[in-house]
Design goal:
There is one protein chain. The chain is built from 5 helices and 19 strands. It is of the alpha+beta class. It has 2 domains: 2-71, no CATH class; 81-288, Fumarylacetoacetate hydrolase, domain 2. The strands form 3 sheets. Strands 1, 2, 3, 4, 5, 6, 7, 8, 11, 12, 14 and 17 form a 12-stranded mixed β-sheet that branches. A hairpin with a 5-residue loop joins strand 1 (2-8) and strand 2.
Length: 289
């Protein structure tokens, strides 16, 4: 199954929906009481997800054209967003940074979350070196503590697409990376979250980025230094990963910072990051004085 937080054309409020091809089925038309967010659905456990599957299969709920909606962030109010840096060798090398013996982990702040087809803006005075990063997002479904690599994927509820937008000048000026990646709107997610059963192998996914019509990242999640299972096992040694936790698993090579000439996101740039089998996530950029 795939889910999205959808906005009506005449409302800023969003609703959780099941997405089937080009149609949306509002979760509020499927079960009562209905979870208002994906986070509530995840916290409802297997029974709630099973009830939704049954209701969708019955085929009686209204279906709405997806074109009539906009998108909120696919992930709303997660317990935490954990980001993993330097998890593709090509990206580490192009930034001139060393892949450490343990994963580089930092948090992304909730104000940075935004949805597909949204506009993200930032002041020119803060940065003119803003970069893109296509990443596989992993959502935890059940509490994970001290899980083994072999069992780690059992903790996964689903997957989404993340664009880990980064102000490179700030990244290289500060010892920690949270601020440079957490401007308002710097963490687009979506459009969809796909349940784990739809992704047999998270290490066999095509991941890519297009900026203003030019393909700038083109890779496979199989090129990760540490697999999704390895990351979950490592993180769960020190913390209990709570349901709804979003893990952004790192970006492949091709960042704008390292290209010759460099490519940074400009005023009115459009960047689309995608992962086959999950979706394509587009962000419109504005720089203001």
């Amino acid at each position: 199954m795939r889910f999205a937080h959808l906005r009506g054309s005449d409302s800023s409020d969003f609703q959780l929906a099941v997405i089937e091809e080009s149609t949306a089925i509002l979760v509020s038309d499927l079960v009562s009481p209905a979870p208002a967010t994906l986070q509530q659905l995840i916290e409802g456990g297997d029974d709630l997800l099973g009830a939704l599957r049954t209701a969708v299969a019955e085929g009686t709920a209204p279906r709405h054209p997806l074109t009539g909606f906009g998108f909120a962030s696919a992930v709303v109010a997660p317990p935490v967003v954990l980001a993993v840096g330097l998890n593709y060798a090509a990206h580490s090398s192009e930034l001139g940074l060393k892949t450490d013996t343990a994963p580089t982990v930092f948090t992304l702040w909730p104000n940075s979350l935004t949805g597909h087809d949204a506009t993200t803006g930032w002041p020119r005075s803060l940065s003119e070196s803003v970069d893109y990063e296509a990443e596989l997002g992993v959502l935890i479904g059940s509490p994970a503590k001290d899980v083994s690599v072999d069992d780690a994927l059992d903790s996964v509820w689903g997957y989404t697409v993340v664009n880990d937008i980064t102000a490179r000048d700030i990244q290289f000026a500060e010892a920690q990376w949270s601020r440079c990646k957490s401007f308002d709107g710097f963490t687009p997610t979506g459009p969809f979250v796909v349940t784990a059963d739809e992704i047999p192998d998270p290490q066999d996914l095509h991941i890519w980025t297009v900026v203003d019509g030019q393909t700038v990242q083109d890779a496979s999640t199989g090129q990760m230094v540490r697999s999704v299972a390895t990351l979950i096992a490592h993180l769960s040694q020190s913390i209990t990963l709570q349901p709804g936790t979003l893990i952004s698993t790192g970006s492949p090579g091709g960042a704008g910072y390292s290209r010759d000439p460099q490519i940074f996101l400009r005023d009115r740039s459009t960047v689309t990051v995608g992962i086959d089998g999950i979706g394509e996530l587009t962000t419109h950029c504005r720089i203001y004085d």
